Structures are given as structure tokens and as C-alpha cells.
Task: inverse folding
């Protein structure tokens, strides 16, 4: 992988497949990264990969010579989407039994949320998926308590105020009504923490079960929970449709 003489530290970590740029920034902020033996916590730090040695969590970081890998995993509930967990909970990469290349999750799914999760060692693709400017859509199926009124769902479609910040408009489709709950499909392009749960909570209908079913037009389909498949170029194009 060709690297410039001087490169921002978080970008270098992403290029080496350690984490997405956003997650790499968190690693730096948390004091998990050192350059030539000195812990670096300031954002914007530049390094020369040809001259300096970078460690993350005590492991030497190198660009390596592995090819780019793209994986779609059906994440089960109970797994964390971080690369390590101090509480000892299972991490999603432990499900990739036959994958020897180091990959990282693109964004996160809550511990109790299931469904489509991208994993890759391509920092540029991860940045493109996660950065708000690209408006990559994610579709979820939410089972919510009760039966939301049409005007409440219209609020979500227009954008709703959550913690002082208005969400971008969402696409809402009512899938099925049950006796005490409703299944709703919601498409958003933001990625705030627990955003879908907070949106439905804001209209008084807490989420009982949540599953991400698509990135753009890339569908999870019938992929069983805990299983994964490798993605090809056509799959990757669907993410941004």
C-alpha cells in the first residue's frame, strides 16, 4: 500500500486495517496508540511511516501486504462491535472463523441489536460509509411497543428533536401490526448512538427488537444469525445506491 511521507496518525491506522478513521480517533483519544514509544492522544498528529514505529494496544502496526477484504455479517445479539471489550463480552470478529486477515467493523451495532454489519480492512471504504456527507442509508426493522399513530410516524419522517439535535428525515414503512406491538421498517443515513431506539422512544413507542437489514441496496437477505459472506465489487456498489 502506497503511503505518503507524512500522514495523519488516524488515517494511517485506517490504511493498515486497524480500525475505521472514526474508531482510530477514539483509540488515539483513549491513549491506546504510541509513536516511537510515546503515547499520542492529540488529534491531527502526523507521522512518517517509513521512519517511525506505531503501536496500537501494544501491537506493532504495519501496512502489510494483504489484499482488501469485505465481509457482511449477520450480527447476533450479545456481541459487541469493538475490537476488544474490557468486560469480557464476545466480540463480533470472533465469529469470523475462517478469516485470517485483520478486519474491523464499519460503525457499530448496539449489544442488543442484530443484523447487517460490514467488516473490512479498507479504511477508505469505511470512511465513505460512515461519513455523513456521503449519506449512505441503513435500513432497520424495529418491533415497537404499541401502535404508533400516523402523525407520530410522520414526525419521524420529517425529523425529530433528540437530545437537542434534529434528526434528518427518515423513510418509514409500516410492515405489520400485532395485538400489542408494530413492526416498522425505517431507513436513515445518520449513525448517532442508539439513534433508532431514541427516535421511537421520543414518540412514546419503545423498541422491543431491532435488526439492521440493509446498507443502501445491499440486503442481509436470508443470511443466518452468526454467519457471514464475502462481498464482491457488485455488492460494494449496492451499498451506495
Result:
Amino acid at each position: 500500500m502506497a503511503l505518503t511521507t507524512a500522514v495523519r496518525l488516524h488515517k494511517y491506522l485506517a490504511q493498515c486495517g486497524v480500525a475505521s478513521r472514526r474508531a482510530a480517533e477514539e483509540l488515539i483519544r483513549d491513549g491506546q496508540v504510541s509513536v516511537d514509544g510515546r503515547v499520542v492522544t492529540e488529534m491531527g498528529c502526523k507521522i512518517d511511516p517509513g521512519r517511525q514505529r506505531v503501536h496500537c494496544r501494544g501491537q506493532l502496526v504495519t501496512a502489510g501486504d494483504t489484499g482488501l477484504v469485505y465481509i457482511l455479517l449477520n450480527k447476533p445479539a450479545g456481541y459487541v462491535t469493538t475490537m476488544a471489550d474490557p468486560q469480557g463480552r464476545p466480540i463480533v470478529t470472533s465469529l469470523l472463523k475462517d478469516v485470517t486477515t485483520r478486519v474491523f467493523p464499519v460503525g457499530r451495532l448496539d449489544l442488543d441489536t442484530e443484523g447487517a454489519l460490514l467488516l473490512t480492512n479498507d479504511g477508505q471504504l469505511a470512511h465513505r460509509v460512515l461519513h455523513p456527507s456521503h449519506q449512505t442509508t441503513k435500513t432497520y426493522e424495529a418491533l415497537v411497543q404499541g401502535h404508533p399513530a400516523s402523525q407520530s410516524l410522520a414526525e419521524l419522517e420529517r425529523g425529530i428533536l433528540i437530545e437537542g439535535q434534529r434528526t434528518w428525515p427518515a423513510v418509514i414503512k409500516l410492515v405489520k401490526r400485532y395485538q400489542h406491538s408494530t413492526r416498522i421498517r425505517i431507513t436513515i443515513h445518520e449513525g448517532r448512538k442508539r439513534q433508532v431506539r431514541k427516535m421511537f422512544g421520543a414518540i412514546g413507542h419503545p423498541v422491543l427488537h431491532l435488526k439492521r437489514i440493509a446498507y443502501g441496496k445491499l440486503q442481509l437477505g436470508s443470511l443466518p444469525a452468526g454467519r457471514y459472506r464475502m462481498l464482491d465489487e457488485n455488492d460494494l456498489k449496492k451499498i451506495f445506491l
